[in-house]
Design goal:
Radius of gyration: 15 Å
Largest sheet: 2 strands, parallel
InterPro entries: NUDIX_hydrolase-like_dom_sf, NUDT9
Number of helices: 1
Strand content: 5-15%
Shape: globular
Number of strands: 6
Protein name: Nudix hydrolase 9
GO molecular function, one term: ADP-ribose diphosphatase activity
Amino acid sequence: MSGSNGAKENSHNKARTSPYPGSKVERSQVPNEKVGWLVEWQDYNPVEYTAVSVLAGPQWADPQISESNFSPKFNEKDGHVERKSQNGLYEIENGRPRNPAGRTGLVGR
């Protein structure tokens, strides 16, 4: 498994497809060798995108991470919401969990 330790050839392809499904949003391109979080990439600049359906605030969606009254507890049970990954602990960056499988060229929901 590649995960955050580094990337295998053609790893994490589905999560790196453009445009983002159901939108016209193009991801930043992430070469196979840069998928893994342990690979240094100072110029990584993912596109910010959250689907309109999520921004509408349906019951199943969390509020925006920037909302002052919302501070989720990742890597543990948070009220009735399980915020643990089956792929190990989330690394938190700017208040958001990083995808444990690596870079996707997109941040948001």
